[in-house]
């Protein structure tokens, strides 16, 4: 079994039970105690779990999220490659939903189509698109200062009225069993609705987002195509994966 598969199994078991023993994880994954302890150390370093005597528990703060500026510098090169590929999928005449997020923001640098219409809930997306003379509509509502996303009941109701050719969605976590998740419930509703009202929905996720679970579910894999930077055989069997490298 690949280490990535074990990590996913371990994380899902801890999510289900809250606390899990090393012995149970050994039996579940058919692995040695030393292997499981290394896996737990790795997941703890990633902030996914906390080790306790004889096992591990789920970390608190699953709904806590970094700011837009903090996330912008993480895996920057990979995000740019993903954004460039995603932008190449846009065709003249498309109606587009562009989600708030750092990788979707990077997309604005590569969108050159003039004959498109973009709807977004990302504050930072607006100026970048206007500078390219692209028609853009910003959804109205409450602005989250941390992520620069517009959210709330009014925002959701506005989004519900649109129909898009393509939606480009940012995500915080991807898990083989739990699907796509994100820390904020209001943002999760926006992402889910955008996927629902779009003909084609693309989730932009660098490989650091895989084998992670966040607070609120957005959607299952069958509803989206995931654009990422690294091949993962485990996920490739489960979802529609587009790898840019």
TrEMBL record:
The gene is glcR. Residues 3-58 form the HTH deoR-type domain. Keywords: DNA-binding, Transcription, Transcription regulation. PANTHER family: HTH-TYPE TRANSCRIPTIONAL REGULATOR SRLR-RELATED (PTHR30363), TRANSCRIPTIONAL REGULATOR, DEOR FAMILY (PTHR30363:SF56). The keyword Transferase does not apply. The keyword Translocase does not apply. SUPFAM superfamilies: NagB/RpiA/CoA transferase-like, Winged helix' DNA-binding domain. InterPro entries: Carb_Metab_HTH_regulators (IPR050313), DeoR-like_C (IPR014036), DeoR_HTH (IPR001034), NagB/RpiA_transferase-like (IPR037171), Tscrpt_reg_HTH_DeoR_CS (IPR018356), WH-like_DNA-bd_sf (IPR036388), WH_DNA-bd_sf (IPR036390). This is HTH-type transcriptional repressor GlcR. Pfam families: DeoRC (PF00455), HTH_DeoR (PF08220). GO terms for molecular function: DNA binding; DNA-binding transcription factor activity. It comes from Tissierella creatinophila DSM 6911.
């Amino acid at each position: 079994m690949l280490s990535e598969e074990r990590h996913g199994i371990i994380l899902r078991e801890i999510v289900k039970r809250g606390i899990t023993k090393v012995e149970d994880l050994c039996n579940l994954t058919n692995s040695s105690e030393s292997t499981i302890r290394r896996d737990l150390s790795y997941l703890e370093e990633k902030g996914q779990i906390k080790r306790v005597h004889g096992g591990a528990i789920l970390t608190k703060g699953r709904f806590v999220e970094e700011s837009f500026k903090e996330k912008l510098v993480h895996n920057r090169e990979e995000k740019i490659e993903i954004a460039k590929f995603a932008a190449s999928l846009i065709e003249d005449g498309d109606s587009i939903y562009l989600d708030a997020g750092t990788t979707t923001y990077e997309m604005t640098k590569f969108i050159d189509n003039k004959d498109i219409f973009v709807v977004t809930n990302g504050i930072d997306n607006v100026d970048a698109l206007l500078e390219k003379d692209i028609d853009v509509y910003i959804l109205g509502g409450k602005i989250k200062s941390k992520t620069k996303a517009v959210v709330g009941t009014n925002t959701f109701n506005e989004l519900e009225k649109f129909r898009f050719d393509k939606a480009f969605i940012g995500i915080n976590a991807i898990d083989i069993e739990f699907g796509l998740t994100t820390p904020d419930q209001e943002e999760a509703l926006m992402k889910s609705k955008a996927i629902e009202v779009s003909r084609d929905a693309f989730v932009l996720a660098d490989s650091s987002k895989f084998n992670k679970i966040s607070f609120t579910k957005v959607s299952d894999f069958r509803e989206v195509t995931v654009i990422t930077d690294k091949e993962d055989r485990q996920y490739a069997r489960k979802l529609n994966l587009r790898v840019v490298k």
